[in-house]
Design a protein that fits this description.
The chain has 62 residues and is mainly α. It has one domain. It contains two helices and no strands. The radius of gyration is 13 Å and the shape is elongated.
Length: 62
């Protein structure tokens, strides 16, 4: 798996993922489980949705 998620993208994904999980707990909805997806892609550094478009947010330093 080639890394295609840069540092800034990873930080944003973690914030969004935690926000979705928090909203799920707050509103007592199972939709909060969707927050696992951005957390997982941030942890792995790879986003499968970027692959077909050959898109990468990694810079030279990432």
């Amino acid at each position: 798996m080639v890394r295609n998620v840069g540092r800034t993208d990873r930080i944003v994904r973690v914030i969004i993922g935690l926000g979705i999980i928090w909203a799920g707990f707050t509103y007592e909805s199972w939709w909060g489980a969707v927050g696992i997806v951005p957390l997982a892609t941030a942890a792995l550094g790879h986003c499968p949705a970027y692959v077909p478009f050959k898109f990468s947010t990694c810079g030279r330093d990432d």
